[in-house]
Amino acid sequence: MATIESIQNAYIDYVLTEGAQPKSVYIFAKQNEMTEAEFYQFFGSFEAVEQNIWAEFARKTLTEIRGQEVWAGYSAREKALSFFYGFFELIKGSRSFAIYTINKQPKGFTTPRVFEQLKDIYENFADEILKEGLESSELSDRKFFSKRYKDALWVQFVFVLNFWVNDNSAGFEKTDEAIEKGVNVTFDLFQRSPIDNLLEYGKFLVKNGGIKDKMGF
């Protein structure tokens, strides 16, 4: 009997062997001793299979990192780093499939359809850790900009993913370096900076130092 996992495994084997999707669900089902009805019980198309595989990478990563004893004590930055390291360690075992699906996506600024489910899971995770960071004051709560923090984290994720696709270093050690530097720089931007202090000081002076009246505001 067909299952989500058996269909995904058979699909990965087919596309990596043939270099393309099966010509039809009927042919794919017949080759794998299932009926079309069994396939459609789980997936509406081959595209849906690919989307679910990428989403499953994220779900497995989150299950793994959240199960670690140290997880509860991690800062938002550490949780983000843990996800990145865990995700890219996991997909090493499916690199050929990952590269196959990424390379056939149309180039552009919109999120490729194959990543739609993955992005939803990732952004829910990002919302969760960013909220924790804002509540603990680890991150700076900036008007208008705080809501865009998760977008910056998604951009960072996509950058590292593309970096990994082209990484030829042993054990993908350059990708690990890109994760460390990229995530840390991103969180440095999220944290309080001298600019925040300067802006707050300026607001204080305008409100309490008589500057507003003197400058004709």
What is the SS-derived class? mainly alpha
As residue ranges, the low-confidence spans are none
What form results from the Cα inertia axes? elongated
Mean pLDDT value: 90
Tell me about the biggest sheet?
Answer: none
* Succession of helices and strands: HHHHHHHHHHH
As a percent range, the share of helical residues equals 55-70%
> Radius of gyration, Cα only, in angstroms?
23 Å
How many helices? The count is 11
The total strand number stands at 0
Alpha-carbon distance between the two ends: 74 Å
> How much β-strand is present in the residues?
under 5%
Describe the structure.
This protein has 217 residues and is mainly α. The chain is 68% helix and 0% strand. It has eleven helices and no strands. It is elongated and about 80 Å long. The termini are far apart.
